[in-house]
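Archive transcription. Copying these from loose printouts into the bound notebook so they stop getting lost. Printout 1 of 2:
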Amino acid sequence: MKLILASNNAHKLEELRAILSSLGMEVVSQKELGLDLEPKETGTTFEENSYIKAKAVMDACGMPAIADDSGLMVDALDGAPGVFSARFGGEQCKNDRERLDYLLLQLRDVPEAQRGAKFVSVITMLTPDGRKIVARGECRGIILPAPLGENGFGYDPVFYVPEKGCTFAQLPAEEKNRISHRAKALETFAKIVKEENINADK
């Protein structure tokens, strides 16, 4: 099955391709189809925004679409930035590093014991015949007071994973792809797909 990814994010495309290829699913970006869509993410949850993006692409191309909506939820900030992770800090923050610095500024007086956080990913697949699969994954960690590591993107340099003893940005890509929130969402997604296929063969 060919799936159109409702994103032009090269990092997401790479992660989804790496994992879904084992299910016989080919993932292509909307850009490869000549689609230039940026649907307004008006949802208040990752589930809502993931659905909005998948439906916009499916409706535009008439093909099965898959979307990921993900973000960082910080305990001390009551779950912020959440669905606004890519827009955290408003227009004054124009890139990943500025958003990361803004996050650290908000947490400057928060002690380590209260700097718990989680990355969340929700993946939605929609097909023109009405099929819908939704899968959620989470990865717990701690927000460091300063960035460490050169890999990854976004908030990865300050997201410390205790069981690994390092940040997301210090992990090799293949290791991050194995334990990340997106990896866990995709693992759940894969289980659902396999169960549906087994039931369809009965």
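Printout 2 of 2:
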Amino acid sequence: MTTPAADFTIYIVEDDASVRDALGLLLGLRGYRTAIFADAESFLQAWRADWHGCLLLDIRMPGMDGLTLQRRLLDLGCRLPAIVMSGHGDVGSARDAFKSQAVDFLEKPLDHGRLLAAIEEAGQRLTATQREQAHDARRDAFAERLAALTPREREVMEMVVAGRHNREIAEALGISARTVEVHKARMMQKLRVDGLPQLIRLSLGHTDEAR
């Protein structure tokens, strides 16, 4: 088992106090931080979009059931991976849980090994989701910078990326090499790139170096 990240919290939503206490003790001994809720409504009221961790969710609870909460959170854009628990497992419930992107469907009494494996997978999913979000944010930021280029700066960028030298660009556009240099400098500044290799990477959609 990998060491839990300091900001990784397991949010337990379970109406049975004895199960809540047992899970809190087990996971605490394994180094996990936990937050415990007795029903779906209280979790939904407390939930914040910046929470980091995973959801350990019982299906059958008074009021809103676990599957309804799972779907509601998806509608809200919640990215916490969910592990669903049930004392009365059935094919339909498991199918619904997995359709709503559950990491696993665990029947009570819980197998501790399987629970911990599911939490590990949830952490991996969360990391992958965060990387995807960061990539999308960098891509969108680069698209905004690209849109700020003048048509001439865009032409210069495309020719630079194609490997054409200043003199070639100048001849193709009917301007001086000095003017090409000016357009290139402004283009690089607007795109916030430090040199040609980074410009090429960004133009090809590799946004891992965007700032």
